[in-house]
Amino acid sequence: MRRYRHLSAGERDRIAEMHARHEGVSAIAAAIGRNKSTVSREIARNGRNGRYGAIAAQSRSDARRKACGPRKRLSDPALAAEVRRRIVDDRRSPEQIDGRSRLERGGRCVVSFSTIYRAVNAGEPDPPQAVPEEGVRGRLRRRGRRPRRGREETRGRIKVDHEVSERPREADARSRLGDWEDDAVVGPAPACPVTMTDRASRLLVGGRARAHSSAEVAKAEVRALAGRPLETVTPDRGKEFANHREVSRAPGGVPFYFCQPHHPWQKPTVENTNGLIREFFPKGTDFSRVTDEEVQEVFEKINDRPRKVLGFRTANEVYREMLHSA
């Protein structure tokens, strides 16, 4: 199949000369080696009052070709602003934006996540004056954490009563509320957020411990779990969890099932959640300068974020549904 070739300026000059002499379309087409329909369309499109001007026709053709490039992927300003707000303010990924939109609209797609990614790579949702690091692209999670390779810690080990291999099947199956994964987000300061994520609903609870010590972490755990369904807790073997027996003995206490040493993937839910927290509190954050209210505000934003693993429902929604159906 032959590819269409636009008329050149020279061909338009020849059309103008022959048309001015009242020569027919067939003769003009034969003279420039073009199809009769091409010449006929050209004269009909660019002729005025029976006359055809080559310069004006070429100018209009150049303008049309300049304007015929691809449309911006987010050509609707309101849609672009909404996408930007969701990514920058709510820290949602393009897939979460797309999935939640389909869920709320009965499966109807407003803008696909692949379209959003292409638009972000083209810089479309950002205003022209935006600083790249503060714009949409700078807010997306582009890489996971590298696995830490280090020397085996020899400063003493905590005593554990149960290992993760002994955990009840219901906890492994994520079939009920109350199976929590436990961790702490450590920074350069003594203070640190304690993060606890429910395996079934992905609900994040916890709070800021005043120090990265087992006593302060245990206090934060007890506060976070008060009034919640309690079945199991799965932490790693960090020394901040050395007071786990105090938490187990507290009113409504809960048994702890520890990961094997250097096996963080045995508590994947809270590890993934910590990655979400790092979007708000990057590595190196001094948590002594972060208030309890700021930590809880971030936790609530994460709990209100649509999650692909939950069918683009939020952790808050799934937790409430499971709590009421129990």
In short:
With 326 residues, this protein is of the alpha+beta class. Helix content is 43%, strand content 8%.
What are the key terms here?
single chain, 326 residues, alpha+beta, Nucleotidyltransferase, domain 5, 3 domains, four-stranded mixed sheet, two-stranded antiparallel ribbon, 14 helices, 6 strands, rod-shaped
Give me the secondary-structure topology:
Layout: H1 9-20, H2 25-32, H3 36-46, E1 47-48, E2 51-52, H4 54-67, H5 77-88, H6 94-104, H7 113-121, H8 136-139, H9 169-173, E3 179-184, E4 192-198, E5 204-209, H10 214-225, E6 232-234, H11 244-249, H12 268-280, H13 292-303, H14 315-325
Parallel strand pairs: 3-6
Antiparallel strand pairs: 1-2, 3-4, 4-5
Helix pairs in contact: 1-2, 1-4, 2-3, 6-7
Structural features, described:
With 326 residues, the chain is of the alpha+beta class. It folds into three domains: 59 residues; 62 residues; 162 residues, Ribonuclease H-like superfamily/Ribonuclease H (Nucleotidyltransferase, domain 5, 2-Layer Sandwich). It has 14 helices and six strands. Helix 1 runs antiparallel to helix 4. The radius of gyration is 32 Å and the shape is rod-shaped. About 3% of the residues have low confidence.
Mean pLDDT: 85
| Classification by helices and strands | alpha+beta
Main CATH class of the largest domain? Alpha Beta
CATH names the topology of the largest domain as Nucleotidyltransferase, domain 5
Could you give the distance between the termini? 66 Å
Spell out the CATH superfamily of the largest domain. Ribonuclease H-like superfamily/Ribonuclease H
**Major sheet size, sense and barrel closure:** 4 strands, mixed
Morphology call = rod-shaped
Tell me what the CATH architecture of the largest domain is: 2-Layer Sandwich
Q: Which H/E pattern describes the elements?
A: HHHEEHHHHHHEEEHEHHHH
Rounded to the nearest angstrom, the radius of gyration is 32 Å
The poorly predicted ranges are 143-147, 150-155
Number of helices: 14
Widest sheet, order of strands: 5-4-3-6
Helix residue percentage:
40-55%
The total of beta strands comes to 6
How many structurally independent domains?
A: 3
* Strand percent estimate: 5-15%
